[in-house]
Structure formats: structure tokens, C-alpha cells
Design a protein that fits this description.
By secondary structure, the chain is an alpha+beta fold. Helices cover 33% and strands 27% of the residues. The chain has 12 helices and 14 strands. One of its GO terms (molecular function) is oxidoreductase activity.
């Protein structure tokens, strides 16, 4: 079994302490939350931090609560809590539904929503789900707090808008409009459960039965978690019968930097984007 390179371990008891440690050790430091992304990378020596800053036991960063029309989720909330949350099932069933597809029960018991978002693996499920839900991410650093829209947060593969000395502390989601439905579909790698191609869809029906709003995010197929803008544009204002959905979904891979590897060629992944997008849209419509 592979083992990590040597490192110094630091346990942060507060967000301020974690920020101070990040400031002290700079590029040599990595933040540990649940550990189910970082530890495997360290064991393979793909990541070799000199200092590991454990934030996993900071009090007050694990919660799901309603605040003035917004659902706030603490960054250290683990997947099992998300999956079982009645509040999320009521307002954002996309999150429990998508969470149930992540890894296995051991992963869901330890992995955290904030860790997944900060890691920004394009094959992970949670970044695409939060992007489709148009979430806002609250960070804290030496200069205080700031709020970043999900559209601006995911910059590339394993790259986000987080500054080197910042910690992701909260995810905020505005309660959706009436007649809004959502769904997540993915073609998963059978071993890892990561997405080869996936689509999170959030669809709102207008009073006249047309699509008044559409938000779609693609996971797994591209170099980064990204929005399926062409499909969104093809849905809004349309009466969404199966033919219209099929046409809109056919554009799901447009403008994306599709990856090619042992799990699928660019052409295969692009086609699978259309397939999972159609399935996600149709299921979201049923729920709208």
C-alpha cells in the first residue's frame, strides 16, 4: 500500500486558527476536512504537502438551517447528514438525491460538502449540483468574509476562486420558485462511482406551461465543472415536450472542453452528455 510523504500535522480548533496556519505555512500547507479526496492523493504522492491543517473538528461548521428565505449549509456537513436532511428533501431534493450516488457509505460518513467543493474535481457530483442550484459560497480569510457565486467559484480542474489563505465556511441556496423541479443523472464509473458524464438539472415551469428558467451543470465529461449554457438557452421559453427536450439536450456538450481517457473518448462523452441531460431534464419536469 502506498504511503504519504512526511508532513507535519496541525489541528485547528477555530476558523481563525486555520487561517493563521495557512498564512504561516503558505504553499506548503493543505487543508484536511473529511479527507476522502486529499488522503488518497497523498498516498499516491500526487499531493505532498509539508503541513496538513485539519479543520474537521472545528465547532459550528456542520449544520443545515433556514435563514430568511435561504438554506445555509455549513462546509463541514458530511454527506450522510445531507442525504438524511428533511429540510433539504423539502426544498432541494437534488442534494440528497445526488449525495446518495457518491461513493459508498464510508465515504458519505466522512466526506464533506465543503471539501468536495473546494477540491473542485470535475468528476465529483457536488460541484455540479451546487452550480445547477446557483449556490453562493461563503469564504473567510485574513481580510474577513466574502461571498462567491458558484458560477465564479469553479475555475478549472482542482482549481477554485479560493485565495491561498481562505477557508470555505458555508454554502447558501435561495429557496426555489414554485413549480421548480430538479434531477441528477450520471453515467458512473463502476469502481469509483465518479461521473464519466453527468448532468444536474433545475427547471422552472411558467404559468403558461413553458420553461421560465433552466439551470444545468455537466459533471465528469469536461475539464471543469461547467454550465450547459447552450441547452439552457434552448429550453427557456419553450413548451417542453419530449422532442423539444431531445433537441435542447443535444447541445449539452457544446462549448465544453471534453476529456478523453480510458473510460471514454471525447465523442463518447459528448454523446453521453446529451443522454444524461435529456434524462435529467425530463425527470426535473415531472417534479416541477
Amino acid at each position: 500500500m502506498s504511503v504519504p510523504a512526511a508532513f507535519d500535522y496541525h489541528r485547528a480548533n477555530t476558523v481563525d486558527e486555520a487561517i493563521a496556519l495557512l498564512k504561516e505555512y503558505g504553499d506548503e500547507a493543505k487543508v484536511l476536512a473529511g479527507g476522502h479526496s486529499l488522503i488518497p492523493a497523498m498516498k499516491l504522492r500526487l499531493s505532498q504537502p509539508g503541513h496538513l491543517i485539519d479543520i474537521g473538528r472545528i465547532a459550528g461548521l456542520s449544520y443545515i438551517r433556514e435563514e430568511n428565505g435561504v438554506i445555509a449549509i455549513g462546509a463541514l456537513t458530511n454527506y450522510t447528514v445531507l442525504e438524511r436532511s428533511d429540510l433539504l428533501k423539502r426544498y432541494f431534493p437534488l442534494i440528497p438525491e445526488g449525495t446518495a450516488l457518491i461513493g459508498d457509505q464510508q465515504v458519505r460518513n466522512r466526506g464533506t460538502i465543503g471539501g468536495s467543493l473546494a477540491h473542485s474535481d470535475p468528476a465529483s457530483d457536488m460541484p455540479g449540483i451546487i452550480l445547477a442550484l446557483k449556490g453562493e459560497l461563503v469564504t473567510q480569510g485574513p481580510n474577513g468574509k466574502r461571498t462567491i457565486k458558484a458560477d465564479d467559484f469553479f475555475i478549472g480542474t482542482f482549481t477554485t476562486a479560493l485565495e491561498p489563505e481562505e477557508i470555505l465556511t458555508e454554502i447558501r441556496l435561495a429557496i426555489p420558485a414554485a413549480h421548480t423541479g430538479s434531477a441528477y443523472e450520471k453515467l458512473a464509473n463502476k469502481a469509483s462511482h465518479y461521473a464519466i458524464a453527468g448532468c444536474a438539472a433545475v427547471i422552472t415551469r411558467g404559468d403558461d406551461g413553458t420553461c421560465s428558467a433552466a439551470s444545468l451543470a455537466i459533471t465528469g465529461a469536461a475539464m471543469q465543472t461547467t454550465r450547459a449554457s447552450a441547452t439552457e438557452a434552448a429550453l427557456v421559453g419553450k413548451k417542453l415536450d419530449e422532442a423539444a427536450v431531445t433537441e435542447a439536450a443535444s447541445h449539452a456538450a457544446e462549448g465544453l472542453e471534453i476529456v478523453s481517457d480510458i473510460h471514454g473518448s471525447k465523442e463518447y462523452r459528448a454523446q453521453m452528455c446529451a443522454v444524461v441531460a435529456k434524462r435529467a431534464i425530463l425527470r426535473a419536469l415531472e417534479r416541477a
